[in-house]
Structures are given as structure tokens and as C-alpha cells.
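Ticket #267: bound-state structure for NAI.
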Amino acid sequence: MKNGILKGKKGIIFGALDENSIAWKTAERVFEEGGEFVLTNVATAARFGKVKELAEKTNATFIPADATNMQDLENLFAETLKIFNGKIDFVLHSIGMSLNIRKGLQYQELNYNYYMKTLDISAISFHKIMQTAYKMDAMNEWGSIVALTYIAAQRIFDGYNDMADAKALLESIARSFGYIFSRDKKVRVNTVSQSPVQTTAGKGIKQFGSLFDYAEKISPLGNADGYDAANLIVMLFSDYTKKITMQNIYNDGGFSSMGVSKNFFED
Ligand code: NAI
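RESOLUTION: The complex was predicted; output attached.
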């Protein structure tokens, strides 16, 4: 499927770590559709991940940045504007991390330093990225900014822990900054609420395998995978979605509208 719908569009993609990452799949699809981009991640991801391999494949420049660090972000946007000799059209935020989950701490026993880090890395970084782009006037009119989220922002998923709070904040930031960005710069901001996908971040969640299977069974179309996410994001970056803003879009095979499925009863 190559229709060139992102020809001439330029942007920044945060969060490609390895070939399973949603951001990796998105970068591949954006490239196929004619888009150009800078890839970014924390410096350690470049050392231990494979992001440089992806950069080579997609003719992209890799610029390291910690998405919680304003100086790194200013440098990233300044360098990107230089590379493209002008403003950009799209930004993908595909970032998430919880030290509480990594250390096996449950919601009723959160470490608050870790909790603040979860919120900063997984949600407030989205505000920091948008504030940087807004102040530097880095986005072209009719540009598009997208972040990845999960339905645990609305409903309880045992084990999703403090990431549920981070996703609720992320979605709220998308609405609040989406209003400002749309009003002042004609740039839309949306979140994609994605089915479970087997990635490094995904597999960090307790009993991820059971969660994945449950969602697969309940969703009439089955789980949306990383490639499905990439296709939706390509569409959201394209001119076909110019008036969609401040929305949380479920890319979940119907999961969010379900109660109990036939599949579930027959199992
Ligand atoms: P992933 O582990 O491949 O990607 C997470 C990325 O965040 C990594 O590249 C990591 O290096 C980056 N990151 C962590 N701290 C950072 C920081 N301080 N600055 C910059 N980057 C940082 O996993 P995945 O699944 O592709 O995650 C992408 C997004 O999708 C996350 O927001 C995740 O919560 C969301 N999501 C994932 C689902 C899943 O089941 N895998 C389901 C729904 C949403």
C-alpha cells in the first residue's frame, strides 16, 4: 500500500527502539508514503537499540533527546528545522515508561519518585514537546501531532498501575494543548488508543500475554497490531484528516465498545 499521501511532509518521530516498536512501524510506513523525518530517542536507546539501522533504511537523521529535558528538545527542534530548511508537518509521541512497574511495585505501594518519573516521561513529555514546538513556531499550518495511549486511561486493567494515570494525563494534555495549537496555529493534536502490542513497553505490563489474549477474544475485529497503528497514524498525518483534532481515537478492533463476545462464551 503506497499512495504517496505524505509526499512533501516532514516531521519528528519519538520512540523507535526496535522493529517491534509502534514508532518503528510508523517510521517505515511514513517513509513508504513519501514522508521525511528525524528519528529521536534517549541516547541509550541508540546504543542498545537498533534505531540507527532504521535511520539508514529510511534516510532519516537520528538526534538523541530525552523527551523530559527542555534543552534536549530545543536542540532537537532547532536541528530538525535546519535539516529541513524550514518548519515541519508532523510529530509522533510514542513514549512510555514506569519504574514502579519495572520494580514490581503495585498501585497501592507506589514509590512517589518513580511515580513522578512515570508522569514526566509518559505524559508531561508530550506537553514539553508541544510547548517547545509552539514557542519555536516549528509547525506548519495544518500540521498534525499524535501520541499513543491505552484504554486503561478510562477503565481498570489490573497491573497497568501508574501508567493508567499517565495515560489519563496524556489524553487531557492532548485536549488542552490541542485547543491552543488548533486555535493559534491550525495544528491538530490527537491520541490513538491502541490495542495491546508485543513491544518492549507492552511486555513490561504484568500478565501482558493474558491481557493480549483477552482483548483478542473480546474484539470483533481482533487486536489492532503495530502495522495497523502505523497506518492510522499515517492517515492522521495526511491531509485527509485536516479537521480532526482533540480526539482520542480507538484503534482496537472494537474492544472499547464491547461487553462480552460470543468468542468469550464459547471458550
Ligand atoms: P517501545 O518500548 O518500543 O517504545 C517506548 C519508547 O519510549 C522506547 O523507544 C523508549 O526508549 C522511549 N523512551 C522512554 N523514556 C524516554 C525518554 N525519557 N525520552 C524519550 N524516549 C523515551 O514500546 P511501544 O509499545 O512501541 O510504546 C510506544 C507507545 O505506545 C507508548 O506510549 C505506549 O504506552 C503506547 N501503547 C503501547 C501499547 C502496547 O501494548 N505495546 C498499547 C497502547 C499504547
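RESOLUTION NOTES: The domain at 10-253+260-266 is CATH 3.40.50.720 (Rossmann fold).
TICKET STATUS: resolved
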